[in-house]
Design brief:
Mean pLDDT of chain C: 88
Low-confidence stretches of chain C: 421-426
Radius of gyration of chain C: 25 Å
Order of helices and strands of chain A: EHEEEEHE
Largest sheet of chain A: 4 strands, antiparallel
CATH class of the domain at 328-426 in chain C: Mainly Alpha
Number of helices of chain C: 22
Strand content of chain C: under 5%
CATH architecture of chain A: 2-Layer Sandwich
Number of domains of chain A: 1
CATH topology of chain A: Alpha-Beta Plaits
CATH class of chain A: Alpha Beta
Structural class of chain C: mainly alpha
Order of helices and strands of chain C: HHHHHHHHHHHHHHHHHHHHHH
Strand content of chain A: 25-35%
Chains: A alpha+beta (about 130), B alpha+beta (about 130), C mainly alpha (about 425)
Oligomer: heterotrimer
Number of strands of chain A: 6
CATH superfamily of chain A: Dimeric alpha+beta barrel
Shape of chain C: elongated
Amino acid sequence: MKYILMMNTMKAGQGIPNWAGKDLQAHIAFMMNLNKDLRDSGELVSAEGLSFPDQARLVRAGKNGVPITDGVFPESKEFLAGFWIIDVDTPERAYAIAARASAAPGPGGAPLNMPIEVRPVMSAPPPEMM
Amino acid sequence: MKYILLMSGTKGGVDHYQAWSQKEVQAHMAVLHSINKRLSESGEFVATQGLAELKEAKVVRGEKNGIPVTDGVFPESKEFLLGYWIIDVATAERAYAIAGQISAAPGPGGVPTNMPIEVRRFATFEQSGSK
Amino acid sequence: MTRPWDATSEQLLRELAPQVLGAVARRFRDFVSAEDAVQEAMIAAFTQWPEEGIPENPRGWLIQVAFRRMTDHVRSEIARREREAVVAQEAELVVPTVDIESDMDPDDTLILLFMCCHPALTSSSAIALTLRAVGGLTTGEIAHAFLVPEATMAQRISRAKQSIQDSGVPFRLPSPQERAQHLPAVLHVLYLIFNEGYVSSAGAYLQRLDLAREAIRLMRYTKEMIPDSAEVAGLLALMLLTDARREARTGPSEELIPLDKQDRTLWDRAKISEGVGFLTEALSKGTVGMYQLQAAIAAVHDEAARADDTDWAQILALYELLKRVSPSPVVTLNHAIAAAMVHGPSKGLELLKQLDSDSRFGGHYRLAAVRAHLFEMIGDYKAAIEHYRMAATRTTSIPEQNYLMTQAARLEENPCGSDKNRARTR
């Protein structure tokens, strides 16, 4: 069963976190190990990080096929920072993986406990078969 | 360059969608389907997914004694992801154009929904972001 | 009599692909279908030969299989037309394959290279088609290298071939004028393939195809077929001199290691020698092109035993030439770095100001990253930290982002000096 795990932590205007180098390294290493383990277990379909919110654009249909783009989002909006797509046997396994990602270490090595949204994903057929 | 195009909505918005006529839903789906088909033909398509099942959604915040801490509460007003497209395109403008087409898909009465589509570029493992 | 499949067989098979394609495309006058047919023959070979061994005449085998696919394709086309035409045309199809092999032309691969890199194509189309038709790679391998679904890559290649057909590009060697006109496009595509391979995490993460090695292979072939071009020799030199450093570029956790911190004992001295050889050859031809200049700059770096031994004055002079021959924001940036190393960081910062007004580049992460480094050199740590962080939010490269964040953190932790200063006071 496929799930998407979404990390929504970034706010507009948020810069790079002000952590010590050691804590940064620990966080990076944690995520790399998580992804490696998921790859080794065959559960990882994809893992992607997104560029920063100040590069995000909101696009609406414009006139004559010319889209209207602007970078204005509500102050309180939390942006998608990254996501995993996993293929697992049970929902419990999906939550366990999400819990691990959520507990990634932050300042002082303490678990961040970031909220990770877990949603089931349907396996849609590729467009040419639709 | 890979982009993800995010279509979000609120619970209220989804309830409203569920009140569309069957013809209106079909017309909307047909336009999205033809967008997907064109992306496939142009070699820009990577993936697309609808995430309509909010009932199954959970939010996980760390673990306590090895057990994930979950809750499934989504307030009425909170925005959540309805679906996404992942595309691989030559320019940012092309990504915005595709997002514009999705936004223009018809809603009730055949009027373009004009839904805002969030466009985000992927970070990559390439050793240089200078493309 | 068959030969067993071994470690060198894949390379051999891939070298045959463009030769076979040349022969089949020439015979059937249909590049689009021939390329599909050859791709199918390649897949059949990759499936069967490891099991059954390599046939005595591997090229003939591939031609036969591709030929059969082509005739099947033509027959199914004909089946839709009128009866009278069928009989006349079918007679033409019964041709022994030996005939095709004697038709082969050693220039075919070069013809294909020029066709696949034709300026009518977008870069990504040209890259995909070149890798398949000239490189002999499978669609799946190419898709995996670019992290897109196979169906997407197959579609890009089909469309690329259609563009070529629609542009009416003939199957023959370009005339000397055409060659002079189109060679830059060929070199640009090969350069992009190399760059794609070089900047991607070296294999460990995704088992991706070694595109840098592929580019060098195609470049060597191009040099053999076009021995008199300074820019061809220059680009081959640039690739070798750059690739020579690959083992030192990333650390054990895929982290980026900048040039001045690399362990130079890991650099491939044989590649550097070879690269310098081609560079000398290029420069001896009298013209000065952008690939030669970039290669010369790489050679100056590669010849320094330690970072401190780098002849920055020479690099600065080369960037001054490059600014005239092939100006771009990236060249301006690198020129500013070299100027900083020769005349001091303030000079570098001054030169960077001209990029602020460049709308394409002003907000680019590299501008902020270079500024950060120069502010650090001057000792303005507050500005350096600010710019490292700004650059980190702007880059889309994860390894780059990690590197920049780490620099900012490092300076935060040592507000009175960088690790360079600390080293000096020991």
